[in-house]
Hints:
single chain; 496 residues; alpha+beta; 434 Repressor (Amino-terminal Domain); Arc Repressor Mutant, subunit A; 6-stranded mixed beta sheet; 3-stranded mixed beta sheet; 20 helices; 12% strand
Amino acid sequence: MSQKSTNERIIFGLKIKQLRQSRGLNFADFAKQTGMSISYLNEIEKGKKFPKEDKIGMLANALGVEPAELTSLDLGKNLTPVAELLSSNFLNELPLDLFDIDLAKVVEIIANAPLKVGAFISTLVELSRNYALAEENFYFGALRSYLELNNNYFEEIEQAAADFAERNKLPIGSLVPVEALARILEKRYGYTIVENGLTPYPELADIRSVYVPKSKKLLLNAKLNDMQKAFQFGKELGFNYLGLKERANTAALQRVKSFEEVLSHFKAGYFSAALLLNREAFNQDMEAFFQQPRWDGEFFLGLLRKYQASPEMLFQRMTNVLPQFFGLDKLFLLRFIQTPAKGQFKMDKELHLNRRHQPHGNSLNEHYCRRWLAVSLLGDLSEMQQAGKFTGALVGAQRSRYHDSKDEYLCFTIARPAYPSPDQNVSITVGILLDGALRRKVKFLDDPAISRKEVNTTCERCPIKDCAERAAPPTIVEAKEKRKKMQKVLKELEEV
């Protein structure tokens, strides 16, 4: 019989186990009746092995069924949840290898309690449907977990970027010319770069670039500046130099096809950032920054100019090197998108290293704490834009202590207009837990110029009284208090 798929092996094994148990056969008795070893039968039931035709006949005879019943993909009514799970291709889409999880172990769990496990996973799938969680939410969530497990540092990509820079004689510790990257793409990899290539397609106005595989053309958005072009070119170089085949042709993923595609785009983006912000040079910059006696936001802006980098690239690079080389591994990164015309703030990116930190996203329709520097700086930027005073980037620092918690973070935020979306602003924040490691490393930690704020998650969940920044009443807190009072009265009535 030909090589069977994982799903076919699982279904066959589940049927054998169910029939064996329904007939009251233990492994020893089953082995005697079939003439097969206990270990081999065990591997069949776990979905690891699929027997040849002659052995299928022996198994069917011992179980009192026809061979066709065993080889059918129909699991029957009792195992419907498992059948739905397998038909959804859920197991095959799990990036188990990234987390060092053996697929056989997952199969074994299903085989040991197929009804319970199948029903549990089916419930999760149904919940995701009810809350409109798209497949890409799962993929990006898996990627985020993978990054967090690795402290967002990948030595093999760092080394690849360093090797590439050396081979192509690219500058280290200073701006990498966008022209040099374009030249490598064109001469070494046969690209044709088309400036303003997306102009004929108004529907693609919010996309930075599109790669056309057949002609090897890279179509650029007319609104891209040199900094954004450099990152896109670096990313394309990453796809080629790292040999990443599974990829989308747009700069950002529009519709996710697989986890491999998501992982490839991450790796190419990491390569580009490591190429443009050399690890050794950037570590020296961070060391100099932390040794300053006073907080100086201009230092960050100077780094943006030095490397011709975006705030997001700069802060992402901080999450790469701070845990690995500075011992600052308790940190988070947040990105907010603001639409000033609608007064909306949306957290669309987050990363938590070492543990889950307090400022994390949620899918609830609530108002994020306006005391967060990530939100308040966007508000300042919007006001300045409306007054016609400023359209560049704002930078700030804050010590944020969470209400009813010992957690306090040193937060750095840069807010700027979003490109190429003129109707939006974006802020990127790195927050580092204030502990002994941070105190030893950062000399300006107690600088009075750094504001201190007591913060919370959302207004609806915040009990802080007389908050001038409150954007919504504490409805969740009030509902909890109401339930507490209700329970207290009911308990008193029980004792009457």
